Amino acid sequence: MSTRLRVYPLSTDEDETPTQEPTLHVRLGDLLPLVALAARHNYLWLQDFLDDEVAITSDLYEVLRAFRCSRPSA
User: Fold this and answer.
1) Residue 14's pLDDT band (boundaries 50, 70, 90)?
2) Sequence-distant contacts of 65-72: CB under 8 A, at least 24 apart
3) Is the pLDDT of residue 73 over 90?
4) Using one digit for the tens of pLDDT, what is the confidence trace for 21-59?
C-alpha cells in the first residue's frame, strides 16, 4: 500500500523571528563614528544587526541616493 503525503501548514509562531520595536532616538553624528569603528575593526556583533532597518528622514535619503550615484570611481 502506498504512503500518503500529509501537508501541514507552518505554525505562525515558528515562521516569525522575534523583532524589537525601536525605542530610542540617536543622533546620526553619535552613531556613525561607532558603527564606522566597529566596521573598520570587523567586530562580529555588527553583523548581527546588518539586516535591521533604520528610519531616516526623506531629505537624508535623497542626499545619500545622490551621493551613491555621483561618487567618482577609483
Assistant:
1) low
2) none
3) no
4) 778 889 999 999 999 999 999 999 999 999 988 889 999
C-beta of residue 61 within 8 angstroms of C-beta of residue 69:
no
Rounded to whole angstroms, the Cα distance separating 21 from 55 reads: 12
pTM over 0.85: no
Q: What span, in angstroms and rounded, lies between the C-alpha atoms of 36 and 40?
A: 6
Single-letter amino acid, residue 13: D
- Dihedral, CA atoms, 53, 57, 62, 65, nearest 10 degrees? -20
Task: Domain ranges for the chain, please list them.
Answer: 25-51
Tracing cell 524589537 back to the chain, one arrives at: 20
What whole-number distance in Å separates Cα of residue 18 and Cα of residue 12? Answer: 12
In angstroms, rounded to a whole number, what is the distance separating the alpha carbons of residues 34 and 36?
Answer: 5
Could you tell me the three cell numbers for 13?
A: 509562531
